[in-house]
Amino acid sequence: MKILVVGNGGREHALAWKLLQSDEIERVFCVPGNGGTAAMERCENIPLTVDNFSGIKDAAKERGISLVIIGPEVPLAMGIADYLQQENLMVFGPSQAGTQLEASKSWAKGFMQDVGIPTARSAVFTDEEEKAAIAYVEKNGVPIVIKADGLAAGKGVTVATTREEAKNAIHDSFAGKFGLSGECIVIEECLTGEEASVLAITDGLTVRPLLPAQDHKAIGEGDSGPNTGGMGVYAPAPIVTPELMDRVQTEILEPAIARMRERGIDYRGVLYAGLMISPDGEAKVLEFNCRFGDPETQAILPLLETPLHELLLACAQQRLREMPPIRWKAGVSACVVMSAKGYPGDYEKGKAIAGLEKAAARGAIVFHAGTALKDRQLVTAGGRVLGVTALGEDFDRAFANAYAGIECIEFDGAYYRRDIGHRVRSAQ
Ligand code: AMP
Ligand code: GLY
């Protein structure tokens, strides 16, 4: 079987790596892929952009692809799954209508209210309602959260601790800071607690959660500084107890998919609930995503025992219910992201990367995010450069292994947080 993966991040490298662990997979193609996918055996990059739907369709047909897996949200929100399905290709990824759950926060809020999914209280304002938005902040006070409605690569959310900050966030969004994504905003109650990511796979009928994970969004140690796409992650996250997972399944994931179906929306892909878990153990949804999380996927997939293609194909063919329970390896997984100097602001590219073989020899699984092969030399090509993952019997051992891997790796300006997993490790 041949599979095509769309995207070029650590998530896509992890997907390709996991798929290739099965002998049934003859070859994986990545569009456009990165330095890591280029270097794997039985894996090949195809240099097309992710918005080139007809190019991707032709590439898939020419190569006899059995399943196309879509990684990033942007092509999904542009309707890539609908397009490829119409061309009779098997696709793992929701229809454009389903991606509104991630691509429009106001739509997602309306959907959650409709279904009765627990979430923060909120109100929606358009750019013609700046005064009303400010009045809402005055009335509700701070802290308060301002969110650009549309996709903003994780940068459209401000947790404002002063009224000034809230007003500036409203103004900046309406003034075009996030382009069209910010013409409409959601203002919501600030929730407190611990965050966790529950990713589930679904065929639109049945939903199966994967192991829960906990990401670290802030760039700085002690969860300080601006938010990033994610600086490190571990799984399974103990904060999501089996009892809480059952509730997430029956109160959030299943009703969401049931309502999608009732609304006539084809949803075959990942349903990812970003949760805030209060100190008394109640989970509310901060956001939904319609794709695999990154870096969550880099920590979750190394623990997966069931062949990945069997699960994703079952989703695409709407027979997930027939699949036996998902099997997981014993132990836990830790992933620490190495980023380029300057990230999440402007960063440098083209720096030579060394030491990956040494890291692998020490047992680390190094997923590439922003890397490229240039004249046969691996160089940095993005803000988040590598995700260094390791397994262990417990979190102390898994993180020790991941950090031992990191110590082998060098590139100019390399940065990583030393405190990833601080909630689950013994004192460092
Ligand atoms: P989102 O893209 O909606 O997940 O928001 C990005 C980040 O902003 C989340 O991971 C949280 O850290 C924070 N955030 C979003 N909504 C809220 C909220 N209602 N209360 C507190 N923090 C929030
Ligand atoms: N790690 C957060 C995300 O994938 O959105």
Look at the structure and give the CATH class of the largest domain.
Answer: Alpha Beta
Structural class computed from helices and strand pairing: alpha+beta
Counted beta strands? 22
Which fold name is given in CATH as the topology of the largest domain? D-amino Acid Aminotransferase, Chain A, domain 1
Bound molecules: adenosine monophosphate, glycine
Q: C-alpha Rg, in Å?
A: 21 Å
Distance from N terminus to C terminus (CA atoms, Å) equals: 45 Å
Task: Report the sheet-strand fraction.
Answer: 25-35%
Which architecture name of the largest domain does CATH use?
2-Layer Sandwich
Average residue-wise pLDDT: 96
Main β-sheet, in a few words?
A: 5 strands, parallel
Helices, by number, come to 14
Q: What is the percent of helical residues?
A: 25-40%
Q: Could you please describe the fold and organization of this structure?
A:
This protein is α+β, with helices and mostly antiparallel strands and 428 residues long. 31% of the residues lie in helices and 26% in strands. The protein folds into four domains: 2-93, Rossmann fold (3-Layer(aba) Sandwich); 121-189, ATP-grasp fold, A domain (Dna Ligase, domain 1, 2-Layer Sandwich), CATH 3.30.1490; 194-322, ATP-grasp fold, B domain (D-amino Acid Aminotransferase, Chain A, domain 1), CATH 3.30.470; 332-406, Glycinamide Ribonucleotide Synthetase, Chain A, domain 4. It has helices at 10-19, 35-39, 53-62, 73-77, 80-86, 96-103, 105-115, 130-140, 163-174, 242-262, 296-300, 308-316, 356-361, 395-408; strands at residues 2-7, 27-32, 43-45, 67-70, 91-92, 122-126, 144-148, 157-160, 184-189, 194-202, 207-209, 214-215, 218-220, 224-227, 232-235, 269-277, 283-289, 332-339, 365-368, 371-374, 377-380, 384-392. A hairpin with an 8-residue loop joins β7 and β8. α6 (96-103) packs across α7. The longest helix has 21 residues, at 242-262. The chain binds adenosine monophosphate and glycine. The site of adenosine monophosphate has 15 residues, from β7, β8, β9 and β17.
